[in-house]
């Protein structure tokens, strides 16, 4: 197998970041439709909103990086979750609630994207929308760059390579997000 040529350094414009973020979100919107209905996180209103704005919701966080992980050759992984903010919620009632968050990974030819998605109506401050500190630490430990929410700054490309093990640590941390109702009850107070 031929060795890949590293990407040439350049700037990704704010508009370019917007197009990339919209493309990633659209891929995950479509992938979500192949899940069983009860496992989906996106509903008709999410599609309608995207068709009008051509942007992900402000409650999503999308990161982009490069890696030598074999998972980023061609890979998509999307895991919806049900975040329960009320510690007193009966587990059976909680299971009847729809999914309201998702963790996602999309890899193509050494470029990877990580999305942390929250339903826009989740009742806590946007500054606290990190979906589990260990998962966020896994993402922050990589040199991946935040491309959404939008800012007006160009992105220096490429970022440093995220080694295989760091990519896997971030991906696995996202996979473990929101593991149990008991943990969610413990997290209710820090999220308020």
Stretches where pLDDT is under 50 for at least 5 consecutive residues are: 125-132, 178-192
Strand order of the largest sheet: 3-4-5-2-6
Helix content: 25-40%
- The value of Rg in angstroms is 17 Å
Shape: globular
- Counting DSSP H or I runs of 4 or more residues, the number of helices is 6
Distance between the termini: 51 Å
Main β sheet profile:
5 strands, antiparallel
Q: What is the mean pLDDT?
A: 77
Order of helices and strands: EHHEEHEEHEEHH
Question: Would you tell me the structural class of the helices and strands?
Answer: alpha+beta
Could you write a compact summary of the structure shown?
With 192 residues, this protein is α+β, with helices and mostly antiparallel strands. The protein has 6 helices and 7 strands.
Layout of strands and helices, then pairs:
Layout: E1 10-12, H1 14-32, H2 44-53, E2 61-66, E3 74-81, H3 91-96, E4 101-108, E5 111-118, H4 133-140, E6 145-148, E7 155-157, H5 164-175, H6 181-191
Antiparallel strand pairs: 1-7, 2-5, 2-6, 3-4, 4-5
């Amino acid at each position: 197998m031929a060795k890949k040529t590293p990407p040439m350094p350049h700037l990704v414009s704010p508009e370019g970041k917007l197009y990339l973020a919209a493309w990633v979100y659209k891929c995950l919107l479509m992938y979500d439709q192949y899940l069983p209905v009860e496992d989906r996180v996106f509903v008709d209103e999410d599609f309608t909103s995207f068709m009008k704005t051509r942007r992900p919701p402000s409650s999503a966080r999308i990161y982009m990086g490069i890696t030598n992980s074999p998972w980023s050759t061609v890979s998509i992984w999307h895991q919806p979750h049900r975040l329960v903010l009320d510690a007193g919620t009966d587990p059976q009632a909680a299971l009847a609630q729809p999914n309201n968050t998702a963790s996602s990974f999309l890899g193509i030819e050494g470029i990877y994207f990580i999305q942390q998605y929250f339903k826009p109506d989740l009742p806590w401050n946007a500054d606290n929308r990190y979906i589990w500190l260990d998962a966020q630490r896994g993402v922050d430990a990589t040199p991946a760059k935040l491309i959404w929410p939008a800012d007006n700054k160009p992105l220096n490309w490429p970022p440093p390579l995220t080694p295989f093990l760091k990519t896997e640590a971030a991906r696995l941390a996202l996979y473990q997000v929101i593991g149990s109702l008991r943990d969610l009850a413990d997290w209710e107070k820090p999220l308020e």
